[in-house]
Design goal:
This protein has 142 residues and is an alpha+beta fold. Helices cover 30% and strands 23% of the residues. The chain has three helices and ten strands. It has helices spanning 86-114, 116-120, 134-141; strands at residues 2-3, 9-10, 12-13, 21-22, 30-35, 38-43, 52-55, 57-59, 66-68, 73-75. The relative contact order is 0.09.
Length: 142
């Protein structure tokens, strides 16, 4: 794997069964796997200065001739601005929780004072019950 334009250099060099040679700037950021005639290369933790055109090349034995793939891969790494909203959002959540708890306590105290049970209870009507049966009249005369 070669970088060709901005900063020309050999990023990865694999020679048959020997250990691969990896450019020190990609030491902990490059992984590769080999399956028969196919090599998969993965770059991690890209930085803005990694932007370049990357080309795969094959070196023929007993020759200094490199056969490169027709087209490379242009990789442009943009720097993303990170907003630190973690600290501020916890303050907002905390204050909102405290306000809701205080509001709930206020409502509970108010309802306790008003004694809500009395407001919603069915009031018994004043009723008088008289037994008008014959027995009760007969017993009253005696």
């Amino acid at each position: 794997l070669l970088r060709t334009h901005v900063q020309p250099e050999r990023v990865l060099h694999v020679l048959n069964q020997n250990a691969p040679t990896i450019d020190p700037s990609f030491a902990n950021r490059l992984e590769y796997s080999k399956e028969e005639k196919k090599i998969v290369i993965t770059l991690h933790d890209l930085q803005k200065n990694d932007s370049d055109v990357y080309v795969c090349a094959a070196e023929e034995e007993n020759s200094s001739f490199l056969s490169m793939s027709r087209s490379g891969t242009m990789m442009v790494v943009k720097e993303v601005e990170q907003t630190d909203c973690g600290n501020g959002s916890w303050v907002i959540y905390g204050l909102t929780t405290v306000v809701l708890l205080l509001f709930s306590a206020l409502i509970c105290c108010t309802l306790y004072r008003v004694n809500v049970k009395k407001c919603f209870q069915r009031r018994e009507q004043n009723t008088v019950y008289e037994d008008m049966s014959y027995r009760s009249r007969h017993n009253t005369l005696v």
